[in-house]
Fold this sequence. Notes:
Layout: E1 2-8, E2 11-14, H1 25-38, E3 56-62, E4 68-74
Parallel strand pairs: 1-4
Antiparallel strand pairs: 1-2, 3-4
Amino acid sequence: MAILNVTYGGRSADVPWDVDDALSDAEVKRLAAEAVNQAPLRGVLRVADPVAFTHFVVDRIHGPDGVLRLYLRPKVPFGC
C-alpha cells in the first residue's frame, strides 16, 4: 500500500485512504481526479476537467519508515 499526495493549483494534500502501490501512472492520475472531485482534499480545489492531470508526473519515493509515497505533481520546466 502507498500514500498518494496530490498537488494542484499550488496546493498539496494526501488522499485520505491508502492506494495500491502497483498502480500505473495512468491509474494514479485517474484515481486522483476521482478523489479530488468526489471527496475534495483539504486545501485542494475541485478539478472541473477530468483530464486535468494528463500532463502531470508521478514520483514514487520510499520514506525513511519504508512506506511508499506517490506524489502527483505538475511537470516543471527545470530539474527532474
